[in-house]
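Budget justification aside, the reviewers requested a transparent look at the raw inputs and outputs of the sequence design task funded under Objective 1. We therefore reproduce one unedited record. The lines immediately below are the structure tokens for a 182-residue chain.
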């Protein structure tokens, strides 16, 4: 039987109760990276392996929801005994012309999709087909498992005491979907 982590607070559970297909309750971000011309590794596989090695630093990434009988109380977080990182990190594809406008459209569609509540409530999409040796990372996580402050701390570990480091082989340029330019 899966280990129970703890019951969701009333505020965290409210994000689940308020969610509808028209009003998703997840937080999303997108970052675009300029890889150096000398970069030859598979960025997607490298990122997936790095996150896999560091899951112990953010254990909530392996927690899923467990509901009470008849839903008489708030759900609990439990350890996902069948956790598979391949169900959370995906290689994104862009149709031609594979530009930033197309990326914005695809990310908008991905952000509109609800997260699968039978799994840990997060996904990452890596688009490594952009022009000029750029890659984009779009991530989303349900608001029930992370608030804005914790999300900022995970996204920018260099500000805290985390041991997470961004890959040395790339330079970050964060952007919102509306300000993304070629």
């Amino acid at each position: 039987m899966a280990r129970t982590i703890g019951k969701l607070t009333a505020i965290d559970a409210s994000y689940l109760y308020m969610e509808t297909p028209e009003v998703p309750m997840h937080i999303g971000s997108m970052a675009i990276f300029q890889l150096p011309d000398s970069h030859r590794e598979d960025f997607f596989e490298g990122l997936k392996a790095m996150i896999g090695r560091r899951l112990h630093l953010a254990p909530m990434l392996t927690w899923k929801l467990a509901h009470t009988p008849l839903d008489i109380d708030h759900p609990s977080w439990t350890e996902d005994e069948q956790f598979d990182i391949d169900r959370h990190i995906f290689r994104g594809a862009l149709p031609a012309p594979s530009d930033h406008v197309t990326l914005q459209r695809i990310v908008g569609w991905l952000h509109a999709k609800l997260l699968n509540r039978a799994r840990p409530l997060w996904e990452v999409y890596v688009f490594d087909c952009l022009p000029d040796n750029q890659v984009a990372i779009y991530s989303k996580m349900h608001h029930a498992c992370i608030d804005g402050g914790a999300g900022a701390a995970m996204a920018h570990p260099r500000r805290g005491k985390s041991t997470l480091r961004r890959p040395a082989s790339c330079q970050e340029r964060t952007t919102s979907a509306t300000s993304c330019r070629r």
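The beta strands are 4-7, 26-34, 63-66, 76-79, 89-91, 122-127, 134-142, 171-174. Residues 100-112 form the longest helix (13 residues). Computational costs for records of this kind are itemized in the attached budget.
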